[in-house]
Structure formats: structure tokens, C-alpha cells
Design brief:
Elements: H1 2-63, H2 70-83, H3 88-103, H4 107-119, H5 124-140, H6 144-150, H7 161-174, H8 178-190, H9 200-212
């Protein structure tokens, strides 16, 4: 009786294993693969970030010198955008390239570098920065209406709200839309502390008031 019972138990265990053991084993293997895969991916991402950071540091050191080597800066920025496309470092590098292009009077090149960031920004800060700088470049190209359209939506980052509204005011004033410019300047003023609002922004409001008088 005891032997028969043991044989039944063995048979039951064999049957259970056929139905459940293999799937459980496979699930365990997949879980382990997932863990090791996640760790490998994290290591890869960390290595990529470190490599991008090293390139960006080189670019930064070049870009902030009194007379930066434009060719080297552009080459480093190109490497960042090729090897680490879409990264924060690559997009800040594009902002530096755009600045050098503006300084050299190459507004089309600057607009191209900035537009690439505007189209697919890595984060909200880069989105606002690139939009503001592109709007200024467009205005310098005489594309004031296009620049204004670019700033139609509010800034995503609180720190840039006043900057955006003041820039909108400048563009509206250039278009002769004094009332709209005044409203934009007032929005910019409201986003600043009382002390910060008493500088250039207040002068612009005063100038508009004189024009209306």
C-alpha cells in the first residue's frame, strides 16, 4: 500500500512538472535574463552618458575661450549629434554652434542648428531656450511674424516665462502692435519680482506709454 502510494505521488509529481514545471523554469530563465539585460542596459547608458559628457566638456572649454576655434567646436558638436543624437549634451552643443554662427553673421546656419533642437528637444529647458534663440534669429532675418508664431505657446519652464513675454513684447512692438506689446510686457513684469521688473522692462513700458501720449 505504501509502495503504491509512493508510486502515485511520483506520478502526480511527474504530471505536475509536465504541466507547470517547464513554464515555471522558463519564466525563471526569462526573469533572470530580464535582470541581467536591464543591468547591461543601465551600464550601456551610463557609459554613453559619460562619453557624451566628456565630449561636451571639451566643447565647453573651447567655446568659452575669448576666441574659440569655430571649426573645432562645430566638429565636436557634429560628433555629439552623430554619436549621441538627441542627448542633452548634443543639443546644448547645437546651441553653442548657433551662437558662434550668429557671432559670424551666419544667421541661416544658426537657424538650422536651433530648429533641430526646437523640433525634438531633450527636455523642457532646451525647448524654451531653443525657441527663444530661434525667435531672435528669425527676427534678425526679418521674419518677425514667424518668430512671434514660434512663441505663441507659454514657456514650459517658470524661469523663462518673463523672458518669453518680454521677447514677445519686443516682436509685437516691431510690428507696431503697441497695445499687444504692452500686454506682453505687463505679463513679463508680473512674472518677475518687483526689483527685477524695474530695469529694462520698465523702460520699455515707459517708452510705449510715451508713444501713446
Amino acid at each position: 500500500m505504501s509502495t503504491h502510494s509512493e508510486e502515485e505521488q511520483i506520478a502526480l509529481m511527474r504530471d505536475w512538472w509536465q504541466r507547470n514545471g517547464k513554464p515555471l523554469l522558463m519564466g525563471g530563465v526569462l526573469a533572470l535574463a530580464g535582470v541581467f539585460g536591464w543591468q547591461a542596459w543601465q551600464k550601456h547608458e551610463a557609459a554613453q552618458a559619460a562619453a557624451a559628457g566628456a565630449l561636451y566638456q571639451q566643447l565647453l572649454e573651447l567655446a568659452v575661450t575669448p576666441a574659440p576655434d569655430t571649426t573645432k567646436v562645430v566638429d565636436l558638436a557634429s560628433r555629439l549629434n552623430k554619436e549621441h543624437a538627441g542627448s542633452v549634451q548634443a543639443q546644448y552643443a547645437s546651441l553653442f554652434v548657433a551662437k558662434l554662427a550668429v557671432d559670424s553673421g551666419k544667421l541661416d546656419d544658426a537657424a538650422g542648428a536651433l530648429q533641430a533642437v526646437v523640433d525634438d528637444p531633450a527636455d523642457a529647458t532646451l525647448a524654451d531656450l531653443a525657441q527663444h534663440r530661434l525667435a531672435r534669429v528669425m527676427a534678425a532675418q526679418g521674419k518677425v511674424e514667424e518668430a512671434l508664431a514660434l512663441l505663441e505657446k507659454p514657456a514650459q519652464v517658470d524661469e523663462f516665462k518673463a523672458i518669453r513675454e518680454e521677447l514677445r513684447g519686443d516682436l509685437l512692438a516691431r510690428l507696431g502692435r503697441a497695445d499687444d506689446a504692452h500686454a506682453a510686457y505687463e505679463k513679463a513684469k508680473a512674472a518677475l519680482s518687483e526689483e527685477a521688473a524695474q530695469g529694462t522692462l520698465q523702460m520699455k513700458l515707459d517708452d510705449l506709454a510715451k508713444e501713446d501720449a
